[in-house]
Structure to design on (815 residues):
């Protein structure tokens, strides 16, 4: 990969089992499309490189798209070609990583390897060409124009071919080209066995059909494309992730692909012959001892319509109760899977409360001493191994026996996976592959993962069958939801000036920043004095200790909760929480990792988010700690500490702001009840209210927008002009043209000329990142929306009336 991100050649490394057949198929494609290719046996002799040479350096992105399209076409002729081949390209990514040189490949004709018959070009029979140098000299080269024309012919639609779509792609069918399947791609009947996976009998299915089926369990890996766009190394991040497996006789797909398989075969007009070898489990006498709330009834009914599926519902919706209802209705032996000791005991308590089990108590055999009776709800994990075989709750980590899943896991008729967004972790996915149960359900509040591997959840547990709208759920709760922004003066450490410090470096500096910690402590103390029940969350154990020590100077009963403690110490801390009288405020300090899932204390009403996070799923988990119903809870508050002087941390807040809006929170400048509140707006809904503020401003309008476009300026000019007519001061702060690429400058200068002609005072500040507006030094618009340009739909902005916040924001751009 050259410094200008072009390349002279593309090499594809083919070294899987059956590499000669893979090479043969690739060569067939090249012959069919008149593409010159040179096959070279690798230096080890256990694989080959397919070389494609170019007339002139071409963009690496185009070369790699060409390679993807070649492989996609070849895979339709030989389904055994693995998806790993998409990750065996040289160059390995479109862009040059920061501070790197790209990946390297040894050129052909290495002397030592040639003496062993390796590192040489091969003919059609995989024999070395007689004259290696003559062969090399006569290789045809491809032109950039020719390559661009080949890509859509090799793989119409997408160069990566048809892949499983995530939820967002499924909602935008116009952005993907649909592939039509016909009876020519399959025999008249396809036989499929349902067990722990879907076993598709390969006999009689053409290569194109097998390739189509295999792709139902494969999806694009957004982490690869994200790293590439950010010029980070892509090592260990393949472009495509696949969950299919294969034996000599069967193509094996995850159970969640059942509807996709049925739909594909139905479209092709092919009969699917299904054989059910899932485990029905043993029948159990169990009844539901409770009443579902009105909102829970349709969720339970929808789940019961299906043998598999995911319930996506907010914290405090009652997913555990609905699971108990499923157990009572299915009446088969059930295994509940959790990932934490804390959840294990919670599940056991809830199932004991909501189920009446009329079964004989099993007897636990002991090596010594007398036999003793076992609970009807067994427990596996946390130092216990007492399955009842009736209803059992297990920690996932306890079900692996070396590289194998414990044999008895396949004996249950139903498996319920709590917090199923953890299923994509390799060890957890491995367990689900060993489950033979007829019924498999997943429960989660956050079905989307930050690493974008959530399709694995649905492949193992089935699709989302019922989804609870978090914003509507917030409206139904008997309390209000507020986020209170607290702008800090924290700046990046001096040694990091001029560089981009890592998030871990920033976390360390934040934890040690005395003014910031003092402000947090003052807010928590005020909450305690007002009778609030506080949860202070951080990402560092050391920060927990530091804040706890500071708060204990003023608050007597501060309880800290972190991982790494012994079981006894953890039990004692949780017992102190439970023993705190209802009339005494709670003050808990914990790491998000410890308390983000499964912690259940209904009294909590105030969350202090002391360290920046960005992922909406994490935010939902943290906020969910406040959403349990409790008598006299009238509102819940999240104090969010925003480090506006550090671009990376401010961007993380912008993402949180969209997350707050999605779960029904409103913005409030102060913690005082009755203070003005506003909804959190998105990129389109903010405009009417924003324009109204422009018209009603009395003295001064200041807009800070790093990016300016002619279209948005033209849209705003009538309002800014009206302000000028009222003799008001109108100031726009933006980046100078020198901050932008030369080709973008003319359009920017046109937009700026419009502002200046209208009498707007334009102030230039290089590399500003803040985005806000202040009217009359009181009304604030702050978020991720560029107020004088157009951005993305997912951007958010909040409106506040607070002179202190206005002053802090103005200070952030004055250096």
């Amino acid at each position: 990969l050259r410094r200008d991100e072009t390349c002279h050649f593309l090499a594809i490394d083919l070294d899987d089992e059956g590499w000669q057949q893979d090479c043969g198929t690739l060569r067939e494609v090249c012959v069919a499309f008149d593409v010159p290719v040179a096959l070279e046996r690798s230096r080890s002799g256990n694989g080959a490189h397919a070389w494609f040479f170019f007339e002139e350096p071409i963009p690496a992105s185009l070369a790699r798209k060409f390679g993807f399209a070649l492989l996609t076409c070849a895979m339709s002729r030989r389904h055994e070609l693995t998806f790993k081949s998409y990750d065996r390209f040289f160059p390995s990514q479109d862009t040059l990583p920061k501070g790197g040189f790209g990946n390297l490949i040894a050129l052909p004709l290495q002397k030592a390897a040639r003496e062993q018959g390796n590192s040489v070009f091969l003919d059609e029979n995989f024999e070395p060409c007689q004259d290696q140098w003559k062969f090399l000299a006569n290789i045809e080269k491809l032109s950039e124009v020719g390559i661009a024309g080949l890509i859509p012919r090799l793989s119409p639609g997408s160069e990566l071919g048809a892949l499983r779509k995530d939820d967002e792609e499924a909602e935008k069918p116009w952005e993907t080209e649909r592939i039509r399947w016909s009876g020519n791609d399959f025999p008249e009947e396809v036989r499929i066995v349902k067990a722990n996976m879907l076993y598709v009998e390969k006999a009689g299915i053409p290569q194109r059909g097998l390739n189509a089926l295999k792709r139902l369990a494969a999806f694009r890996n957004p982490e690869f494309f994200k790293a590439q766009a950010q010029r980070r190394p892509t090592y260990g991040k393949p472009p495509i992730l696949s969950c299919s497996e294969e034996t000599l006789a069967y193509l094996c797909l995850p159970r969640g692909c059942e509807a996709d398989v049925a739909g594909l075969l139905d479209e092709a007009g092919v009969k699917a012959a299904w054989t059910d070898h899932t485990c029905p489990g043993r029948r159990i006498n169990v009844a539901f001892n409770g009443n579902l709330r009105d909102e829970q009834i349709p969720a339970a009914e929808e789940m019961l319509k299906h043998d598999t599926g995911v319930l996506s519902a907010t914290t405090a919706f009652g997913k555990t109760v609905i699971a108990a209802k499923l157990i009572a209705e299915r009446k088969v032996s059930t295994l509940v899977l959790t990932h934490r000791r804390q959840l294990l005991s919670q599940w056991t308590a809830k199932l004991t409360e909501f189920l009446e089990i009329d079964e004989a108590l099993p007897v636990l055999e002991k090596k010594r001493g007398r036999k003793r009776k076992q609970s009807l709800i067994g427990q596996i994990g946390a130092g216990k191994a007492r399955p009842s075989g009736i209803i059992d709750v297990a920690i996932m980590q306890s079900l692996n026996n070396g590289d194998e899943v414990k044999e008895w896991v396949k004996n249950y008729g139903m498996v319920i996976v709590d917090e199923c967004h953890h299923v994509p972790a390799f060890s957890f996915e491995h367990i689900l592959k060993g489950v033979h149960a007829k019924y498999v359900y997943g429960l989660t509040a956050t079905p989307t993962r930050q690493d974008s591997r959530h399709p694995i959840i649905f492949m193992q547990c089935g699709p989302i069958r019922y989804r609870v709208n978090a914003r509507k759920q917030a409206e139904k709760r008997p309390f209000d939801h507020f986020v209170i922004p607290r702008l800090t003066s924290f700046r990046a450490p001096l040694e990091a000036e001029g560089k981009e410090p890592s998030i871990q470096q920033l976390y360390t500096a934040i934890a040690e920043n005395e003014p910031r910690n003092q402000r947090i402590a003052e807010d928590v103390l005020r909450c305690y004095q007002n009778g609030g029940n506080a949860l202070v969350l951080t990402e560092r154990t050391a920060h927990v200790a530091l804040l706890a020590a500071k708060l204990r100077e003023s608050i007597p009963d501060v309880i800290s909760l972190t991982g790494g403690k012994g079981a006894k110490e953890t039990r004692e801390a949780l017992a102190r929480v439970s023993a705190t009288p209802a009339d005494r405020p709670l003050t808990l300090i914990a790491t998000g990792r410890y308390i983000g899932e499964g912690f259940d204390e209904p009294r909590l009403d105030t969350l202090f988010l002391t360290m920046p996070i960005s992922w909406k799923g994490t935010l939902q988990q943290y906020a969910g700690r406040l959403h349990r119903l409790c008598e006299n809870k009238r509102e819940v508050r999240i104090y969010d500490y925003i480090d506006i002087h550090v671009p990376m941390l401010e961007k993380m807040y912008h993402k949180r702001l969209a997350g707050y809006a999605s779960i029904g929170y409103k913005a409030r400048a102060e913690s005082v009840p009755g203070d003005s509140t506003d909804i959190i707006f998105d990129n389109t809904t903010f405009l009417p209210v924003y324009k109204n503020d422009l018209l009603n401003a009395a003295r001064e309008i200041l807009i800070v927008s790093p990016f300016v476009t002619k279209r948005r300026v033209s849209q705003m000019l009538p309002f800014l002009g009206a302000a000028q007519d009222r003799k008001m001061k109108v100031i726009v702060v933006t980046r100078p043209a020198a901050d932008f690429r030369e080709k973008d400058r003319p359009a920017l200068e046109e937009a700026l000329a419009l502002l200046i002609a209208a009498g707007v005072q334009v102030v230039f500040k290089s590399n500003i990142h803040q985005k806000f507006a202040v009217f009359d030094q009181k009304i604030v618009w702050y978020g991720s929306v560029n107020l004088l340009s157009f951005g993305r739909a997912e951007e958010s902005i909040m409106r506040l009336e607070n002179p202190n916040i206005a002053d802090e924001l103005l200070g952030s751009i004055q250096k």
